C-alpha cells in the first residue's frame, strides 16, 4: 500500500478521533458543559410535521436539546429516530383521545441527571404537557401550555395550571437556574401580536388574566429572553392556517424562552426561525454559555 493511500484511508479515523476529543473537551466528566443550544418547536402533530419538514434547519443549528410540543403520538416516528440517533429521547404521551392529543417530547445530546414528567396534577397530566429535566448547570422545563379555548371556556383551568407551574419554577430557581421554553400560549404585550385591539379579552392568549399571570412569573425573577434582546422587534411564532395569515405575517408570539434573571447575561442568542415550515408555529432557538 502506498503512503498516499494509507494516509487517505486513515483520514476518516483521525477525523473521528478528533471529533470525540472535541466533544470530550466541551463536556466534563460530570456531564457539565459550557455552551448549550436549544430549539423548541410546537410541531402541531409530529407525524404530519416530518412529512412536511426534513428537520435539516433544526439539525443545522446543532442543538444540544430539542423540545417538541403538541407531538400527538405514542412513539417517535422513524424519521426522528434516524435523524436524532445520537440523542437521548423522552416522550410524554397524552392518555386522552388515544394519544392523538397534546403530548411533548425532548431530544438531548447530554443525558439528563433526572427527568420528571408532568406538572403533578391529574387534571393536566393526562394530556402530557410538561417535561422537567435536570442537568448539572440548570433545570430545563419544556411545556405545551393549555389553551384557554374558544370563548375562553378554559380560562379558569388555565389559571390553575399557571399557579401550579409558577410554584414549581419558584422552587427550582432557588436550587439551580431555570430555562423554561415552549409554546406558552400567551402574547404578553401588544407588540407580541399583529392585532391587539380586536383580540384583547376576546381571544385565548391575549386576556388580561393570561398576560397578568405571565407578568407575575417574570416578577419572581425571570426574563423573557427574546424581548430582552429584541425590545422593539415585531416578530411572531404562530400564524393561523386561515386567510394566508403566515404570508401576510398576521401572527402571534406564543413561543418563548424564559430564564432565571441571574443567567440572562449568559444568553448569547434568542431568535425565531421564521422561515422553517412544517407547522403553524416557527421553531425558536436559544444559545447560552455558562
TrEMBL record:
Cofactor note: Probably binds two magnesium or manganese ions per subunit.
Cofactor names: Mn(2+); Mg(2+)
InterPro entries for this protein: AP_endonuc_1 (IPR004808), AP_endonuclease_F1_CS (IPR020848), Endo/exonu/phosph_ase_sf (IPR036691), Endo/exonuclease/phosphatase (IPR005135)
Pfam families cross-referenced by the UniProt entry: Exo_endo_phos
Residues forming the catalytic site: 144, 183 (proton donor/acceptor), 281 (proton acceptor)
NCBIfam families in UniProt: exoDNase_III, xth
Name by which UniProt lists this protein: DNA repair nuclease/redox regulator APEX1
UniProt source species: Caenorhabditis briggsae
